[in-house]
Specification:
Length: about 210
């Protein structure tokens, strides 16, 4: 039976048999001995995304009293949900993300993980309701790799150069023309959008390939 450990761009953790291409966690364990989630949805501000395999390590997913493994369609999904690259298994990507995230904020030196996590947490979670923060922005300025709400049902869409791709937990749908001159709701946090604008390229699922 599938576990409740698949994450949507809205940051929700759902149950689905689809396999992700990238893993992550939120700072510790928030599941019980039966591998069912508690009412919590994170342990700390340390929300990361990792490779599925690293250093030959093997373990049972959602081992009791260890961290709660989460799975994403791709890195673009993880970034939209509010995660960042892991500084251990994805150090090259994490260093690049930190450099570009910091440059977008006008910082002289790259910020450390703790500083990024503090800012990201404020950008992704409403402190009163605990709900995901959303931000409106011009679609014309949205970078490739960001996620926005679009389409007739205002579902999550991946922003590409000339199109939007509707997201699903198993892959992206057929491309839609990327409209110009309109305002959309961004799922990806502002700081991460800044890093994307400055050149960070997230890993995107094979179904996202834009041949338009």
């Amino acid at each position: 039976m599938p576990l409740q450990n698949r994450v949507t761009p809205m940051g929700e953790i759902v149950t689905d048999p689809a396999r992700g291409t990238i893993m992550g966690n939120r700072g510790g364990a928030f599941h019980d001995d039966a591998r069912a989630l508690s009412a919590r949805r994170w342990v700390s501000r340390r929300w990361i995304c990792c490779w599925l395999s690293f250093g030959g390590r093997r373990r049972t997913v959602m081992t009791p009293r260890r961290y709660t493994e989460l799975f994403f369609l791709d890195e673009a999904t993880a970034l939209a949900a509010g995660h960042r690259p892991c500084f251990e298994c994805r150090r090259t990507e994490a260093m690049e993300f930190a450099r570009l995230w910091s440059a977008a904020r006008g910082l002289v030196a790259p910020a450390g993980a703790s500083e990024i996590d503090q800012v990201l947490h404020a950008e992704r979670v409403d402190p009163v309701t605990g709900a995901k923060r959303l931000n409106d922005g011009e679609l014309d300025t949205m970078p490739i790799g960001a996620m926005v709400l679009a389409g007739p049902h205002r579902g999550p869409h991946l922003v590409l150069a000339e199109s939007l791709r509707p997201w699903s937990i198993s892959g992206y749908g057929a491309p839609l023309p990327r409209p110009r001159g309109c305002v959309v709701t961004a799922l990806t946090p502002p700081g991460t959008i800044g890093a994307l604008k400055f050149g960070y390229v997230p890993m995107m699922h094979e179904t996202s390939f834009d041949r338009s």
